Amino acid sequence: MKRTTILLRPIFVALALAWPAVEAASQQPILSPRDSVQVRFNGKPARQSGFPAAGGRIFVDYGRPSMRGRVIMGGLVPYNKWWRTGANEATSFITDVDLRLGDTLVPKGAYTLYTMPSPKQWKLMVNRQTGQWGTVYDPSLDLVRIPMNQRTLRSPVERFTIVLEKTGTRSGVLRLRWETTEVYVPFTIISNTTTPQR
């Protein structure tokens, strides 16, 4: 019994010494936490036709990296090369309604969002592949590439942010913000998932 205690003592000492380091590592902040945004539209019957108005949900799930003193646009996010549009896992985009995103039809479904940053005009790529790591991109699976509007923000945004902003009963704007850059594209619901009642 005494011999067993002597043999186990160094193991207990090693564990006791290592525990603070393990505990400190578990308390480290996540550099690019996962976040999600969504917007909902409630379909209501139209007075004249009796058919339901467009309703549904649009949802985005993405990683949110921070500036942390780095040059973002043209640096960490290079110009004229595709970008994962977030961090870690690919940025997912789910719509249960058909959309007109910019001037382009995007049927209801699940997609991945990528972008092509540029000093003058970004492009939003809606890609059919889903569930992959963010650095995996197959351009042959792009559904559409949509030009985005761009403006300079007065104050820098520290953490990459995606916003889904409702602008009407069937319309909204998808916005991407980081550093002093905001790019955005409007969208309009053009159908819903409800079968018209006759």
Write the layout of secondary structure elements.
Blueprint: H1 2-26, E1 34-41, E2 56-63, E3 91-95, E4 99-101, E5 104-106, E6 109-116, E7 123-127, E8 142-147, E9 149-166, E10 171-189
Antiparallel strand pairs: 1-2, 2-3, 3-6, 4-5, 4-10, 6-7, 7-8, 9-10
Any overview of this molecule?
Strand 6 (109-116) and strand 7 form a beta hairpin. The chain is mostly beta strands. A six-stranded antiparallel beta sheet has the order 1-2-3-6-7-8, with no helix packed on it. The protein has a four-stranded antiparallel beta sheet with strand order 5-4-10-9, with no helix packed on it. The N and C termini lie far apart (84 Å). The protein is globular, with a radius of gyration of 23 Å. Mean pLDDT is 85; it is low at 45-53 and 193-198. The chain has one domain (31-189). It has one helix spanning 2-26, and strands at 34-41, 56-63, 91-95, 99-101, 104-106, 109-116, 123-127, 142-147, 149-166, 171-189.
State the end-to-end distance.
84 Å
In DSSP terms, counting alpha (H) and pi (I) runs of 4 or more, how many helices? 1
Report the sheet-strand fraction.
35-45%
Order of helices and strands: HEEEEEEEEEE
Main β-sheet, spatial strand arrangement? 1-2-3-6-7-8
Q: Give the count of structural domains.
A: 1
| Major pleated sheet | 6 strands, antiparallel
User: Average pLDDT value?
Assistant: 85
User: Structural class of the helices, strands and pairings?
Assistant: mainly beta
Compute the CA-based radius of gyration.
23 Å
Helix content: 10-25%
| Overall number of strands | 10
Q: Low-confidence parts lasting 5 or more residues at pLDDT below 50?
A: 45-53, 193-198
Question: Rough shape?
Answer: globular
